[in-house]
Fold:
Amino acid sequence: MSNAQGPQRLLTEVLDTDLCCGCGACVGLCPYFTSFLGRTINLDPCDKEEGRCFLFCPRTELDLDGLSQKLFGVPYGTDAIGTHRDIYSSRAARSGKYQAGGTVTSLIEFLFDEEMIDAAALTTNDKVLPVADLVTDKAGVKRASGSKYSVAPTLSALNRAAREGYTRVAVVGTPCQVTAAAKMTTRDGVERNPGDAVAYVVGLFCTWGLDYRRLFEYLSGRVDIADITGFDIPPPPAELFVVETKQGKLTFPLAEIRPFVRESCRHCIDMTSEFADISVGVLEDNPAENLLIVRTQKGEELVKRAVDKGAIIVEKMPDGGLVHLKESALIKKKRALANLSEKDPQAAWGYIVGPGDRLKKIMD
Amino acid sequence: MSYLSKDSPGEVNLLMGNEAIARGAIEAGVAFASAYPGNPSSEIITVLGSLAQELGIYVEWSTNEKVAVEAAAGASYAGLRSICAMKQNGLNVASDFISNAVLTGVGPGGMVLIVADDPGGISSSNEEDTRYFSRLLEIPLLEPAGFQEAKDMTAFAFKLSEETGLIVMIRSVTRISHGRGNVVYSKIEKGNKKARFDTGRTVLAFPVPWTHKILHDKMAVIKDKFEESDFNRYEGPKGADLVVVTSGAAYLYTKEALGLLGLSDRVGVLKLGTTFPLPEDFITRGLKGAKKVLVAEEVIPFLEASVKEAYANHVKDLGVIEFYGKASGHIPRENELSPDIMAQAIAGLTGTGYVPVDPAYQAEIRGLSLPNSPYRALTFCAGCPHRATYWDLKKALKLDGRDGFIVGDIGCYTIGLGPQGYSMLRTTHAMGSGSGLATGLGQLKTFGLDQPVLAVSGDSTFYHSVIPALINAAHHESNFTMVVLDNSTTAMTGAQPHSGSDTGAMGIPAHGLSIEKICESLGAKVRVLDPFDVDKSVQSIYDTIQDDEGIKVIIMRQECCLYRLKKDEKRYLMKIDETRCLGDACGCNRLCTRVFKCPGIIWDRAGKVARIDEVICNGCGVCTDICPEGAIIREVNHEA
Structure:
């Protein structure tokens, strides 16, 4: 392995091995990487020995203990849903049309209202392709609400925001995106680090994302692509992939869609965005509510202020309600660790740099 | 009046070899001239074209070499003297017609074929030696060994053609065509300018054995003429031990080498100007008494094989002679010769000590010259639309991500093979070969080929030989994208007009044919793009290659920057905003100079920023769209 921490290594270790998650962390920092229809593309050769592309990629040299220490002041733990301070069920205080409880949309709108941020790196559907969306006012937040089933280069919106001079940016992202944002905010000594512009990181729960192009290859011929308005995966045990079209809903067996899960997702140990300030998902037993995990002090203060000012309503979760979530998160971790050691038997945990003892414990 | 059209016998003029050939044709009263441009032959027709109206002759840049040779033969059948010029590759295209015309004969007007070879491939994709065509096709061959001969042989070739009814071929090489020397003029013949096709004559090659026999009888007559030709001569001491047999430019190198070695009075030189059919008796006389023969020629051992064959026929008269040349390793089989190579070969055979250039001196020269000379890559001109086209193609193929590829062709855009064209081309062969390869590749879907197939060609190449491949593709519904890089001229050979131009070789209006209309008539889906409009072009190319049904044609239309700047000012005035260019601190890693590679942008090592070289920059403005920091500013040039 070369000592370089630049684009050449990013290509050989991440893009060429299909470990790229498409988060967009390397997009918009330079002219060499772009994202197109869900794929990260290297346009031209770059021979830099060190590059932000490599440093911030969530699939390179992921030092779990290091990140955890810097963000939470403790080493990486063995709790499958990550280090946290509090767990709530939550929902938007105002009623509206949300995928679940509307917590994320409400919080970002609240941050704009309170002038605690000047921009937000969000993900919006362009027809059915999720794209990075740099939102700079409250009015733009709603267009980003709702679940996405393939990954967008959301962090390219953060990179753009930093380049354009925004200094307090909220990032809402999937675990891979949150990991990249955490690598940015915790990295010292890098010039023009977009992490310097990050104000809050809101993580989403994510089991996997689909390869956009393969999904569309499958759907074309089965659905008029132009008529698609959205997707949904109803809770288990439905095992269905629902395509919403102008003419109505079409369902496909989830088993036929699963092969389109990105290779990268099979090597991701994080279901609940463990390196965010707060993480938000759907509450399993009540799809009209969110599950809200508070991880950092900054996250705690944000939630408290949002509750106090009436933006969201929260309720402490009894520990018993998390059994299923923890189980799923643990399954994801175990699978990923197994896949990583299978993919590269030389490196014990692939791109993950320790801690070996605790990872072994998770595996057991 | 041009110095080339003056009827001033005895006057001496310093002429380029190609001008000497043109002057020879003018002296012979040529009436019709045609060619497809190709270096090193191009100036012949350029010169004749510029004099066409003054001389009352017809001159054209034909669509391709086969059409050119046929057009010239047409004039010959109507009684006019005609000349047709091409580079070595062109003869491959034209040879199909010629192989039949040798049996039918040409008309009452003499027809001369000029083929300019390019040993060393200085401006070519190969160093094909066309002299073998004379044996293959059975046409008489002349090889000028200087500028006077270039003119004189051309005039002679017309007479020989008329006497025998055969096309006579003159083979030049780069150093003859592009070199310059003094030429003594002869009188300009008026020549027949009244065309009439004799309907009493049917031109045909049947029955073949009969017409072939007539051809051989003619060749016998020509051989006898060649035995007496002044273009062949023996120089040096009679009965020399070593005789150098040579022709063309190699004769000049031989003479220079003998001068260097001081061996002019010891070594004989048998200089041949008529090399097919070979004047065997003349050669036998020249080799009488020789113990060693060195055959000096460039590229293929054509003369060496012929002379050995002649020797075999006359071995009784000549006794034992040792032959040296390419077979013995004394003369290289590739590249051009030089006086130095010849001196080494002759020195080796005569036991003369010869150190070409002191090796220590050579090393010193290299040591001094290389570090002090700028690195010059084979590159597109600043502002060349092809650079933009490859930039657009590269991005579209990268976004597509299916490992699409481009098969190439012959033109300036062949530079797409190298880093200056982002290494986008995967192949290059002959004119039109890219489209031909693509018609085959476009049929391989059923064999699992799932990569987008693209072919490129220039506009001139499109007319030259892409059209038949496109017809094939349209007929068989081959799936590929034909990208025509239309820069409105035959740029690589010196901006000659082509079938799409609105003027021809004579500078008078011509009917320019529309590439898009031709393609549309084949049922191709046609898009016309401006390569300088990067974003739109990338999107359009991307969209086009998503369509995997049938042939798609993309015309990347933007005038050749050099051609344009002959008529107009730079479109944009470019400058770098130094407050925006972050230099090495930017994440761009010098995208503009290191990757985009336009020679109009230079990297200021001291200031560590990009700069515009205002002398080199041709003002296309594309780099403005390349710079991620918006540091390259383009201002519309109101003088344009």
